[in-house]
Write a structure and sequence with these properties.
Structural class of chain A: mainly alpha
Structural class of chain B: alpha/beta
Order of helices and strands of chain A: HHEEHHHHHHHHHHHH
CATH class of one domain in chain B: Alpha Beta
Largest interface: A-B, 49 and 45 residues
Oligomer: heterodimer
CATH architecture of chain A: Orthogonal Bundle
Number of strands of chain B: 11
CATH architecture of one domain in chain B: 3-Layer(aba) Sandwich
Strand order of the largest sheet of chain A: 1-2
Number of helices of chain A: 14
Chain lengths: ~300, ~425
């Protein structure tokens, strides 16, 4: 109340021209000053690069020869004719779908199991969450050793009398191995999010359902799932976007092989730009990656109205 | 999304830096710091480079030379990215695989006037580094491949190393397989191949006179009979005879884990003083007879470096006959006058004169450099993926090799 009086009092008393620096303007300036660093950062590192990357995609840029020529849509035409691109898209889709389905299913299963009031659940929660805080590279390198033909996993299989496959070198198992390594790395994060959501479901709803004679599966399907659907939306967006970013795992474990079976879009982009010195084409691929991520996120956001309960 | 943005940011930064960077001030006076990128962080190498740079500073007090050791695995990628970012090194080591790209692109300054006694360089050593008769980079390291043998392991397996006419690929594979079976270690390791860097397989297939592509770089050689024969031999040696480790099996010769390894002589520095007994022999003869393969490292002055003139002057000093002799202890020199057992023996106490003669001197004079081509990174990648189906038991060797040619023909034609 006092503030309001203070603000209006000078203006009411003033007889001369209205001063430029009114309190309102000063407040606005303060606000803008506060967000300026963040805006500058976003402009320099998000908006400008986004524009530039589109600009670069219209050029052929050879770093060694020091040439930067405008080629219009040539890089996009090259993309349409690129024999490797369909297999790159297939590998990316396989990885993303595999990762999202396995990760979410396993995370939800673990969360439901660890939501029980049993002894030792804290230990298991820590156990499953700990890979999240391990360095991605260290995690991947260790798995690389384990998955070698004479590595730890085949050693265990050998002991059980099973002749294990050459996990990272055979077309059938390489991508599956990369997916599993990544699922174990990050399943803990989604598990914790699901746990928090499960604990937010009001217990009286369960009681009411049980009174009505609902079995555990019906309760899970009719009460738990709808009530944690906002978290399912969140985790699926995070996981889909994350799955399209996979790079270190591919670089360390398979380098895109065998053949091109694990060459996903980000890795292909890296190869083109930084290994083959085709920066323009690399930029074109990153525009495509950006559009795919954008389309999938928009799609998920639109679909939320159909299945996220509080959006209906 | 964040990755997309960060990749985009990288591009943008490169762009911004390119705009800011570049432009030589070669003629300017005042203190100059030259940056030379290398792929060796070996303390002995670094010490020698620093000594040479310190000696140069006594006559050029304004010039400081900084050696920037970059990781070998991504060496060319890192240098290229630095060039793109306007942070080009003044002087760079260049791998033989990337030589055609660097030499042909016009990124390097011609060195003819910067090399003392350029006429004394061995022609096989400079061939890769010349364009229109001009020397674009100095092949400071011209290192032939040989076979290191763990004699202790062979003895333990009751094997003797074949010599003279008996030192053939057929016999080498037999000894390797027998040693592997009897000791539980691995047989013969083609170092740094690891079923990825196939260019190292040139040390095997050249024995069949096979080539990855023709000398003019236009015709694929993978589907030719010599290559089919060489790869059939290799496939059998890996999957039937178990003379070479299978894909995904790690074995380090220098840690005593294999009977033999094909590597460059500079790798002798990895042998421990009190380790196992070893010897070094030339590559075994193939059906096409004796042959030799060389790996090279070139030294080039980048036009986009900030002090090109000063860099050229330092390269003249760094590669002078006197310094070349010092460098010879690690990097076999391309100078005819220094390619004798006496000079090399002084610098390589670990190797016997006859080893130096047979592997190094004969190797450099008659050797063929590992495969290289313009656009080599893309071609290498296509060959690597094309060869992947070969690395399993029962593969159709001729079919796979035909597929490699289908994959690289459009790239060779570029």
């Amino acid at each position: 109340m006092t503030v309001v009086l203070d603000r209006t009092a000078p203006a009411a008393r003033s007889t001369g021209p209205r001063p430029f620096w009114t309190t309102r303007r000063r407040d606005q300036l303060t606000g803008y000053l506060f967000i300026t660093p963040a805006l500058l950062g976003a402009a320099a590192f998000v908006f400008l690069p986004l524009v530039l990357v589109v600009w670069y995609s219209l050029h052929e840029w050879n770093v060694l020869a020091d040439t930067f020529n405008f080629v219009g849509a040539d890089n996009y035409r090259k993309l349409a004719e690129d024999r490797n691109f369909p297999s790159v898209l297939r590998a990316t889709a396989f990885f993303s779908i595999g990762l999202v389905v396995l990760n979410l299913a396993l995370a939800l299963l673990l969360a439901v199991l660890l939501n029980q009031k049993l002894r030792g659940t804290t230990f298991f929660r820590v156990l499953f969450f700990s890979p999240v805080v391990v360095s991605l590279l260290a995690w991947t390198i260790v798995w690389g050793f384990l998955l070698q033909d004479n590595g730890g996993i085949n050693g265990l299989l050998d002991a059980a009398g099973i002749d294990g496959p050459n996990w990272l070198r055979s077309g059938g198992t390489a991508m599956a191995s990369v997916v599993v390594v990544q699922v174990f790395k990050n399943v803990g994060l989604n598990m914790v999010l699901f746990l928090a959501a499960l604990q937010g479901v009001p217990p009286e709803l369960y009681e009411a359902a049980r009174t009505d004679g609902a079995g555990p599966w019906t309760i899970f399907r009719r009460i738990t799932l709808p009530l944690i659907s906002p978290t399912i939306l969140l985790t699926s967006i995070i996981t889909v976007v994350g799955s399209l970013q996979v790079f270190a795992q591919i670089s360390v474990l398979t380098q895109g092989g065998p053949g091109t079976s694990t060459t996903v879009l980000v890795y292909y982009l890296y190869q083109q730009a930084f290994q083959f010195h085709a920066f323009g084409y690399g930029a074109t691929l990153s525009v495509v990656l950006f559009l795919i991520v954008l389309a999938l996120t928009v799609l998920q956001w639109q679909m939320r109205k159909r299945w996220v309960f509080h959006e209906r | 999304m964040r990755k997309t943005v960060s990749i985009a940011a990288t591009f943008a930064l490169i762009g911004a830096l390119t705009a800011c960077g570049g432009g030589g001030d070669a003629g300017s006076d005042g203190p100059v710091t030259l940056r030379m990128t290398t792929w060796s962080a070996n303390p002995d190498h670094v010490k020698l480079f620093d000594t040479i740079a310190a000696e140069y500073k006594t006559t050029h007090p304004d010039v400081t030379v900084k050696f920037d050791a970059l990781p070998f695995e991504n060496y060319t990628t890192t240098v290229t990215t630095q060039i793109a970012g306007g942070n080009a090194p003044d002087i760079a080591w260049i791998l033989e695989g990337a030589a055609p790209d660097f030499v042909a692109s016009g990124a390097l300054t011609a060195l003819d006037d910067s090399i003392e006694d350029a006429a004394g360089l061995v022609p096989t050593a400079t061939a890769l580094w010349k364009q229109d008769g001009k020397l674009m980079a100095y092949p400071f390291s011209t290192s032939p491949f040989g076979v290191f043998v763990n004699t202790d392991l062979l003895k333990k397996a009751g094997q003797t190393l074949p010599t003279g006419d008996k030192w053939t690929w057929e016999n080498a594979a037999k000894v390797a397989a027998a040693t592997a079976t009897k000791t539980g270690k691995q047989g013969l390791v083609v170092r740094d191949f690891d079923y990825k860097d196939w260019t190292n397989l040139a040390t095997v297939f050249r024995g069949w006179d096979a080539e990855a592509w023709s000398a003019d770089g236009k015709t694929c050689g993978f589907d030719q009979q010599p290559m089919v024969d060489a790869m059939t031999f290799l496939h059998k040696a890996i999957f039937t005879d178990k003379a070479l480790p299978a894909p995904g099996v790690a074995a380090d010769f220098f840690a005593g884990e294999s009977a033999m390894t094909i590597a460059q002589i500079s790798r002798a520095s990895l042998l421990e003083k009190d380790g196992f007994g070893w010897t070094l022999v030339p590559l075994p003869a193939g059906p096409a007879g004796d042959y030799s393969v060389i790996g090279q490292g070139g030294l080039g002055v980048l036009k986009k470096g900030k002090h090109a003139a000063a860099a050229q002057d330092f390269v003249k000093f760094f590669t002078s006959p006197a310094n070349s002799e010092k460098l010879a202890q690690f990097f076999p020199p391309p100078r005819q006058s220094q390619l004798n057992a006496a000079t090399l023996a002084k610098a390589n106490p670990l190797l016997k004169p006859e080893q130096l003669q047979s592997v190094v001197i004969d190797g450099i004079e008659s050797g063929v450099v590992k495969p290289s081509h313009t656009g080599s990174a893309e071609i290498n990648q296509a060959v690597r993926s094309g060869l992947d189906p070969l690395w399993k038991p029962g593969a159709d060797v001729a079919g796979v090799l035909k597929g490699v040619c289908t994959a690289i023909n459009p790239l060779l034609a570029k």
